[in-house]
Amino acid sequence: MIKSTSKKFVLSTLAVMVSSSLWAADTDTDTVETKKDAIGLERIVVTGVARGTRVMDSSVSVSSVSPEDLAISSPRSSAEAFRIIPGMKVESTGGEGNANIAVRGLPVASGGAKFLQIQEDGLPILQFGDIAFGNADIFLRIDSTTQTIESIRGGSASTAASNAPGGIINVISKTGTSDAGSISSTVGLDYDTLRTDFEYGASINDSMRFHIGGFVRTGDGPRDPGYTANKGGQIKANLTKEFDSGYVRLYVKHLNDKSIGYLPMPMYSDGSSIPGFDAQSDTVHSANMLSTLRLDADGNISRGDMRDGMNPIVNSVGLEASFDLGDDWLVENRFRISDVSGNFMSLMPAEVANSSSIADSIGGSGSTLIYANGAKAGQAFDSDLAMRVHSFDVTMNDFGSIVNDMKLTKTFDDSNVTFGFYTATQNINMTWMWNSYLMEVQGDNAALLDVVGADGTEYSDNGLYAYGVPYWGNCCQRNYDSDYTIKAPYIAASSKFGDLSLDGSVRYDSGDASGYYAGNVQSQVDMNRDGVISQPELSVSSIDNANPQLVNYDWGYLSYSLGANYQVSEDLAAFGRISHGGRANADRLLFGKVNADGSVSDEDSVDEVDQYEVGVKYRYDSMSLFATAFYSETEEQNFEATSQIFFDRKYEAKGIELEGAYYVGDFDFRGNVTWTDAEIVKDALNPSVIGNTPRRQADFIYSLMGRYNFDKGSVGVNLIGTTESYAQDNNDLSFDGYTQVNAFASYQLTNALSVALNVNNLFDTVGITEAEEGSVPDNNIIRARTINGRTTSATVKYEF
């Protein structure tokens, strides 16, 4: 059973607020000043603002995550590192990528991070955070080159970046400001992983410095698939040249990493495990299912390798420059060109049901199942339960982009005005090549199953019963190649009048999409080239290249944000903000929302968000607190690939976001709690859900940490949790809340050598984050994703 977390516990946590944000100081350098400013109210904000501003003077909700904070939270993926950011509901159960991220009640109607932009060094990884099977976090790896992770939530992000009305997460790299480096190795103690991180930065001369680093790793991952599922690495480097009036910095990055992607898995509706399949540690992946035969975008027979998993291949070059032009003028420019491609390969249970009924649905009444491979190959299947599985076989042919953000700032005494122009191109070229298989419900190298009709006819080939997905109407043999361009001029101004700071900004995004897309066509093909047409080969799905559909539309939307901050005293400030933003829709409009001439209606092309915020920042002695009340109205058009459902909705959400820190002697307590009340207020396609809570939206989410610091290290726990939420928008099936406890300990053996122990999900808690079903089925089996069971790792780090 999932252990429920009561609202009483969360409310008491709100009252005591022993927690915080993400601005941890090194335990060796904690000072009175550091303790008083534990959430970084004195630091300069650089993300999502026109010009660097002290947090205490700003009217934005901003937080920062340090490498020390990451170690405390024991993340097993990049998205898990974001769980400790206030206001972020991060469903990071997909593996190293494919996470769903919601911000302050803004919806996740399909997948990804639609209203949030994930950046590296101030520029977006992708222009759209919810590309089908191309979520931005798939192309991000956090390693020892990371200096800090800065985040902004709320309406101020509307004018700071395109397609980011909900917020920005910016992963900022080290730049060699000190002559230092490190090398560390991490090994899994109860799961198979081995990873080495390295980084080094130094000055070349008085005006030049560099930083280089990355990681390599291999292993099975938290859930054993029966093969090496995680393999690859990353290398990043930058070179900075300083001048009397500014600097120029060159960035390069190479990422080629294969990691297993977890999709919803079979379990009982209360989260408990089906016999033979552990919901916390098993996966439907198997050594008996490593390759799939398919027709590619051009109709050629090819093979996909399940071991590719989520395989981002990124080669990017970026340039950053900042110069003082004199007479209080400053120019800044960021540019990056990225060559991006890869694969998304995973297995999705489409149905978990009685084995006889599944066999009859394929081969007719009286059909039976036999083992297609494995130890029992050729024998009669001996279980009452089987799975219909679809191979989510997607090739990301080209996700390349070119981005440039240029801004010019003029300062007048206590005021400044920034004029900026942002341009970007984003390619979305991918091919879906899905097939259908039968498998046993078994977590340890499940075998494939074949269907034999009552007359002896074989209806499948080595577990494959269809080239395509007829169970879903052969929806998902697709190819599309579309290019998206964005142009966005913007103006931001701020002034300080004594203790009062005012700021305002306006941005106009315009863009166009061009290209084509093609669906499926059925035909007879001898896929295995044996000269015999088997049952699955009678109707093979391929791309209908003879009938491509045009993509040819444009969009435009205006964003604005107005904020005020009043510093009541040195340790107390209040702020307010009103914002209007937008988010252009991309590939999820295809196959349903694009007209015959390639056009798209205005209401479908852009989703708009209105937001209102008020908050306070307060510190006293060794306590710091940042509180924000928020309200939002969101219009959304969307499409979900697994359910094949379009959405046309309006949402409302209100809530309170708290983050804080408190020091007591050698103890420090940090964390954040967010209360959200969200509602579907309009639905043009499914009015029955009006008044319901959006799916997977919990009343409370929280991240709490307590740590004891001593001379040679620290020990502590980090709690990440959520109260109950609904699986789907019909508000029938609900998930209990859960608290995931992560433990950590570090010890300094020498000044340069340290060891650390991290335990993710210490108490082996089961916590469901999503499910395909909206109601409990007759057999009580759902397809859902849960947090991984307990995993323990040890790290040895040498600093030089």
Automatic annotation (TrEMBL):
- Domain TonB-dependent receptor-like beta-barrel: where? 390-762
InterPro entries in alphabetical order: Beta-barrel_TonB, Beta-barrel_TonB_sf, EF_Hand_1_Ca_BS, Plug_dom, Plug_dom_sf, TonB-dep_rcpt-like
In the record, the note on similarity to other proteins reads: Belongs to the TonB-dependent receptor family.
Write out the annotated subcellular location.
Answer: Cell outer membrane
Would the keyword Transport turn up in this protein's UniProt record?
A: yes
Q: Which organism is it from?
A: Shewanella vesiculosa
Which interval of the chain is the signal sequence?
1-24
The record's section on Pfam families has: Plug, TonB_dep_Rec_b-barrel
Q: How does it sit in the membrane?
A: Multi-pass membrane protein
Keyword hit for Ion transport? yes
Keywords linked to the UniProt accession: Cell outer membrane, Ion transport, Iron, Iron transport, Membrane, Receptor, Signal, TonB box, Transmembrane, Transmembrane beta strand, Transport
What is this protein called in UniProt? TonB-dependent receptor
Q: Which residues form the TonB-dependent receptor plug domain?
A: 55-168
